[in-house]
């Protein structure tokens, strides 16, 4: 509805009704000074309420004429502007928490997984690397806080949500500790049931490749040089996460003997340090397996490797 010269009368009647009812009268609308275009005299005009704009100023004989803001625009304050303000638009990585209305602009916040940083920009929550766990999860106003896993705990994945988990105790069903857990992998347990060292190494390969942070180009070379196992190995255009997924799929179908070749593959592709670290893990597994379970597992692995070569 348009505000007209009836506004002062309506406010007067409302004030009288309030006094009769014994309640405080509403305050009069704020005003501004203008010049009557007919007389040239100064006049005091009522401002327009939030959600409205000034269509025409008052004169000595007529009050201010206000009109509602059209859709997509707003005014939040008492005003005498000739046009409503255009509704804002949420920025990159933001979502609207309150839509724009005639008397208020939209309200925006960082979308889930992001937090507000300097200059109002939203940034993705930090993901804690392997070997570290989440101490406090990120919020719209705060980044993720990470901390190194303490003794007896580990984190095998890059995550913005998971904390460190306790190492397996290796006490169930007569199992023994074959490889003690580290900050980035769980303990490896054995029950001495004719499993070879390569089988046990398979258990830590997924977290190993995440922990080493090997870049995509080298991961492609590694994937290409792994022994054939029947798993899909195409690597063109894949990012590091997808490439590690392909290596994990290969490891799931590879024989124990093929798993034993991974340290050498790493060395041949230039990842000498990673190859040496994985070779040390395998040697420790082999040594502990022989000590805990005797030489039968080691022999079984060699025979299994020969059978695999004969089948191929």
TrEMBL record:
GO terms for biological process, alphabetical: apoptotic process
Domain spans labelled TNFR-Cys: 68-108
SUPFAM superfamilies in the record: TNF receptor-like
Leader sequence segment: 1-17
Protein location: Secreted
InterPro entries named among the record's database cross-references: Death_3_fish, TNFR/NGFR_Cys_rich_reg, TNFRSF_decoy_receptor
GO cellular component, one term: extracellular region
Keywords noted in UniProt: Apoptosis, Disulfide bond, Glycoprotein, Receptor, Repeat, Secreted, Signal
Cysteine pairs bridged by disulfides in the record: 69-84, 87-100, 90-108
Chief localisation class: secreted
Domain of life assignment: Eukaryota
TNFR-Cys repeats (start-end): 68-108
PANTHER family: TUMOR NECROSIS FACTOR RECEPTOR SUPERFAMILY MEMBER, TUMOR NECROSIS FACTOR RECEPTOR SUPERFAMILY MEMBER 6B
Protein name per the record: Tumor necrosis factor receptor superfamily member 11B
Organism encoding this protein: Liparis tanakae
Gene behind the chain: Tnfrsf11b
């Amino acid at each position: 509805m348009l505000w007209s010269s009836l506004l002062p009368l309506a406010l007067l009647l409302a004030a009288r009704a309030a006094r009769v009812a014994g309640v405080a009268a509403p305050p009069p609308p704020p005003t501004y000074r203008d010049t009557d275009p007919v007389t040239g005299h100064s006049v005091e005009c009522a401002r327009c309420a939030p959600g409205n704009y000034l269509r025409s100023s008052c004169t000595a004989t007529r009050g201010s004429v206000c009109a509602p803001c059209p859709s997509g625009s707003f005014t939040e304050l008492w005003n005498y502007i000739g046009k409503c303000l255009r509704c804002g638009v949420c920025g990159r990585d933001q979502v609207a928490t309150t839509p724009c209305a005639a008397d208020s602009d939209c309200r925006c916040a960082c979308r889930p997984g992001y937090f507000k940083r300097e200059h109002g920009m939203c940034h993705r929550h930090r993901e804690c690397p392997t070997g570290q766990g989440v101490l406090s999860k990120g919020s719209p106003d705060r980044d993720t806080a990470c901390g190194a896993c303490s003794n007896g705990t580990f984190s095998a994945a890059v995550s913005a949500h998971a904390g460190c988990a306790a190492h397996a105790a290796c006490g169930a069903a007569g199992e023994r500790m074959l490889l003690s857990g580290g900050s980035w992998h769980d303990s490896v347990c054995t029950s001495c049931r004719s499993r070879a060292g390569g089988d046990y190494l398979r258990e830590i390969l997924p977290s190993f490749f995440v922990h080493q942070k090997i870049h995509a180009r080298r991961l492609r070379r590694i994937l290409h040089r792994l022994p054939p196992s029947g798993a899909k190995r195409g690597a063109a255009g894949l990012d590091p996460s997808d490439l590690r997924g392909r290596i994990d799929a290969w490891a799931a179908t590879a024989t124990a003997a093929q798993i034993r070749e991974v340290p050498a593959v790493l060395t041949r592709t230039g990842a000498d340090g990673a190859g040496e670290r994985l070779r040390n893990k395998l040697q420790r597994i082999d040594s502990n397996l022989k000590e805990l379970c005797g030489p039968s597992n080691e022999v079984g692995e060699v025979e299994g490797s020969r059978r695999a070569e004969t089948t191929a």
